[in-house]
């Protein structure tokens, strides 16, 4: 019998040799998968690559390259997933020592995480599942036609038009489906901080580098957001700090001497705090007068904006974020020889505006077992303006707090909310003049709202919602709404939305025409809140072909009926702007369609068109609304030349004739604008790691409003009306010096007055 002790050395040696041979055999058997992941020839970074039912996985790098090694031979299912793309699966069979080269092309996904929307229902939901139609625009869309602010960028969104309201200071507002700016509510991260005075200036200076996406809802949303959300709303959603890039810089200049710089950075402070910091600076200090009226064609501006967003990690993944923005802007327009020394005098005409604005907003999930969210915002807006000799000094403060709770049951997705809004407004105009002198306007508006999204089976859902606001000036205001969605399949969706809206009006914070020129503002009665009733029918169609073609078609029929509408009357008296509640009704109706096409060869096309009729009826007389086009079209065409790593973007818009404000029967200017178009072209080179070079031409057709009119600004040679003669009734008389019986007026404006110009810029991403 052989003892174990005597066998141990031999056994140990055999064990070692066997292990070595087995290990070498395993090493010899391992396989590798490598390749590149692209989208229309462009590399896709940070793609997840995984072998199903194994622990093997990796991700692609900045160039889209990946390597998955140390794989035991056999049959596997390779899974590919990435934010914004359709999942990819491929069965692979690997043999010993094989190096499989596998290049993969991804296709855009209709229901990806980037399409998560929150604006329609105040809850995150995929765009396809939302009962309310929501349009989503990404930073890529903004980069196809670089602009210094979101206000200008929206000119390529179908049914949305930035309207310039003054030829001198170039302030403006956003029209949705033909409804003026005061009917559009602008949100930042879901908070209504851009309203009143901020409607004019709040869309300037938001760093584009910090924008995650822009969501647009067309039609009343007062049941969730209260006053001002009558025509629609725009929600600018900023990036989530933990997922933002370390550094993003974007700067460009134009042939007119405009300079714009955007810088965004993510800073990690400890294990639980992340800071997102953004700075925007814009400068234009080159007076140009191409139409020879001795007035600046474009307002000169010097603007700086600083944005911070803090994200704090908490236990149980509870949310806590805090953001703030500071904006300062100095803008002026007027006669070419104007300097700050002439500010407020009647020697040289100028419109000078100093704006200082603070914003604070945040979200905090209460430390309770129930998911209750507290959202808040505060804005402080100080404006020091002079329009010729007319000063406009205004302060506006808006505080907003809101609690929301969204429980879910079997077939009910509920939302309950309570909100409190504080409005403070003070200026040096009759708007805040009382019997005891100047009296600031201070209003508290409490609100309650609720909605229930009811699942009626796999493909049907019904949303019911309502809101109650109490305003001491107008009492209780009730705004219900309903929405129905029929998801025929993953590619066809029908939606119908109906609801009501309301708006409490403050003319002096919204209508720039009330503050400029020589017109007197006349308010004939106590202005009641405007009310609206709306219905919207939407159809969405998505097509994916086996050869990589992606098509999205979206069309909507809309109808809005207003009562108590307040419209400025420029025509009864050329020296006045008369405001009163409409003794009749106003209607906005039309059809809007978008077509989004993506081809495997790198061509992407987004085309939109809207046909609408916006009119008022009073005393059985129907009148077309002023400064509203019958039709509008937009397009974004993008093509990537892969071997050159160059992308070509061709963007533009076209607008039909609008009725314009004339100053009397002798005014020689046309009552209607012509059909006009702004078109742009851009080339972008992406061949250097982390860098993009771009350049092109804006306003290729060199179109400006003065092409179709003898002059744009009335009486530009006499801006203080020193040589205007009036009769005993205060009406302007025609004289040899003033043959058309006009007064100075810069409100005959319907489009930008800036001609063709080249631009060049560079982006860097870390």
Topology:
Elements (H helix, E strand, L loop, with lengths): L3 H26 L1 E9 L2 E2 L4 E4 L5 E3 L5 E7 L2 E8 L6 E7 L4 E3 L2 E2 L10 E2 L7 E2 L8 E3 L1 H5 L6 H4 L6 E5 L7 E5 L7 E5 L2 E4 L2 H5 L9 E8 L3 H4 L6 E7 L8 E8 L3 E12 L3 E12 L15 E13 L7 E15 L15 E16 L6 E16 L2 E16 L6 E16 L5 E2 L2 E2 L2 E15 L4 E12 L3 E15 L2 E12 L3 H4 L9 E4 L6 E15 L5 E14 L12 E4 L4 E15 L4 E16 L2 E4 L6 E11 L4 E10 L20 E10 L5 E8 L58 E9 L1
Parallel strand pairs: 1-8, 1-9, 15-18, 34-37
Antiparallel strand pairs: 1-2, 1-5, 3-4, 3-6, 6-7, 10-11, 12-17, 13-14, 15-16, 17-18, 19-20, 19-45, 20-21, 21-22, 22-23, 23-24, 24-25, 25-26, 26-27, 27-30, 28-29, 30-31, 31-32, 32-33, 33-35, 35-36, 36-38, 38-39, 39-40, 39-41, 41-42, 42-43, 43-44, 44-45
Description of the structure:
With 766 residues, the protein is mainly beta. It folds into three domains: 17-105, Immunoglobulin-like (Sandwich), CATH 2.60.40; 113-235, TonB-dependent receptor, plug domain (Ferric Hydroxamate Uptake Protein, Chain A, domain 1); 236-280 and 288-382 and 390-765, Beta Barrel (Maltoporin, Chain A). Helix content is 6%, strand content 51%. The chain has six helices and 45 strands. The protein has a 22-stranded antiparallel barrel. Strands 1, 2, 5, 8 and 9 form a five-stranded mixed beta sheet that branches. The longest helix is centred in the first third of the chain and has 26 residues, at 4-29. It is globular and about 105 Å long. The model is unreliable at 1-10, 19-28 and 110-114 (pLDDT under 50).
């Amino acid at each position: 019998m052989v003892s174990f002790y005597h066998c141990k050395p031999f056994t140990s040696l055999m064990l070692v040799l066997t292990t070595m041979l087995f290990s070498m055999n395993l090493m010899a058997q391992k396989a590798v998968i490598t390749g590149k992941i692209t989208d229309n020839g462009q590399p896709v970074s940070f793609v997840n690559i995984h072998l199903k039912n194994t622990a093997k996985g990796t991700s692609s790098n900045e160039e889209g390259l990946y390597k998955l090694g140390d794989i035991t031979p056999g049959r596997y299912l390779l899974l590919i997933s990435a934010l914004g793309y359709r999942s990819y699966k491929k069965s692979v069979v690997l043999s010993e020592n094989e190096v499989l080269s596998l290049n993969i092309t991804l296709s855009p996904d209709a229901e990806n995480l980037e399409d998560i929307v929150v604006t329609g229902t105040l809850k995150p939901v995929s765009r396809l599942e939302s009962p309310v139609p929501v349009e989503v625009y990404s930073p890529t869309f903004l980069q196809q036609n670089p602009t210094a602010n979101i206000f200008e960028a929206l000119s390529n969104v179908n049914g949305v038009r930035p309207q310039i309201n003054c030829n001198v200071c170039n302030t403006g507002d956003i029209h949705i489906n033909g409804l003026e700016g005061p009917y559009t509510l602008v949100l930042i991260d879901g908070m209504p901080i851009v309203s009143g005075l901020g409607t004019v200036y709040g869309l300037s200076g938001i760093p584009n580098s910090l924008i995650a996406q822009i969501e647009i809802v067309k039609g009343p949303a007062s049941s969730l957001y209260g006053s001002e959300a009558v025509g629609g709303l725009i929600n600018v959603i900023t990036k989530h700090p933990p997922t933002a890039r370390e550094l993003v810089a974007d700067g460009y200049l134009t042939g007119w001497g405009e300079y714009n710089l955007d810088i965004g950075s993510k800073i990690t402070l400890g294990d639980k705090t992340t800071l997102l910091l953004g700075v925007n600076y814009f400068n234009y200090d080159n007076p140009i007068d191409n139409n020879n009226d001795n007035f600046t064609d474009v307002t000169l501006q010097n603007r700086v904006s600083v944005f911070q967003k803090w994200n704090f990690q908490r236990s149980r993944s509870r949310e806590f974020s805090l953001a703030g923005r500071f904006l300062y802007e100095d803008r002026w327009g007027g006669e070419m020889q104007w300097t700050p020394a002439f500010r407020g005098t009647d020697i040289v005409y100028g419109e000078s505006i100093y704006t200082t604005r603070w914003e604070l907003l945040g979200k905090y999930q209460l430390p309770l077992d129930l998911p209750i969210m507290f959202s808040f915002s505060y804005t402080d807006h100080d404006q020091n303006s002079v329009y010729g000799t007319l000063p406009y000094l205004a302060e506006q403060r808006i505080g907003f707090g809101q609690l929301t709770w969204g429980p879910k049951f079997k077939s009910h997705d509920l939302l309950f909310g309570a909100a409190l809004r504080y409005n403070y407004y003070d200026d040096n105009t009759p708007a805040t003049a009382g019997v005891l002198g100047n009296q600031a306007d201070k209003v508290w508006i409490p609100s309650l709202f609720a909605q229930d999204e009811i699942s009626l089976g796999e493909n049907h859902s019904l949303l019911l919602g309502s809101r109650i606001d109490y305003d001491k000036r107008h009492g209780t205001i009730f705004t219900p709404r309903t929405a129905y969605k029929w998801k025929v399949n993953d590619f066809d969706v029908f939606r119908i939305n109906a609801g009501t809206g309301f708006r409490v009006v403050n003319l002096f914070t919204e209508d720039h025409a009330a503050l400029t020129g020589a017109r007197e503002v006349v308010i004939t009665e106590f202005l009641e809140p405007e009310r609206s009733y709306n219905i919207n029918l939407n159809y969405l169609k998505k097509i994916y072909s086996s050869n990589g073609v992606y098509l999205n078609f979206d069309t909507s029929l809309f109808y809005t009926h207003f009562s108590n509408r307040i419209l400025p009357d420029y025509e009864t008296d050329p020296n006045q702007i008369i405001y009163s509640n409409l003794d009749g009704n106003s209607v906005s109706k039309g059809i809007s369609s978008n077509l989004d096409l993506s081809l495997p060869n790198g061509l992407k096309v987004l085309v939109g068109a809207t046909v609408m009729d916006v009119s008022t009826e009073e005393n059985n007389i129907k009148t077309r609304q002023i400064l509203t086009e019958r039709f509008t079209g937009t397009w974004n065409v993008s093509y990537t030349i892969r071997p050159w790593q160059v992308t070509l973007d061709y963007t533009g818009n076209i607008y039909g004739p609008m009725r314009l404000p004339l100053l009397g029967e002798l005014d020689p200017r046309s009552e209607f604008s012509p059909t006009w178009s702004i078109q742009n072209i851009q080339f972008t080179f992406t061949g250097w790691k982390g860098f993009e070079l771009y350049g092109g031409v804006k306003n290729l057709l060199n179109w400006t409003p003065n092409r179709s009119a003898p002059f744009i600004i009335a009486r530009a040679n006499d801006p203080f009306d020193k040589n205007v003669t009036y009769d005993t009734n205060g009406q302007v008389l025609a004289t040899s010096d003033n043959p058309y019986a006009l007064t100075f007026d810069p409100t005959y404006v319907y489009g930008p007055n800036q001609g063709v110009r080249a631009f060049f810029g560079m982006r860097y991403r870390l």
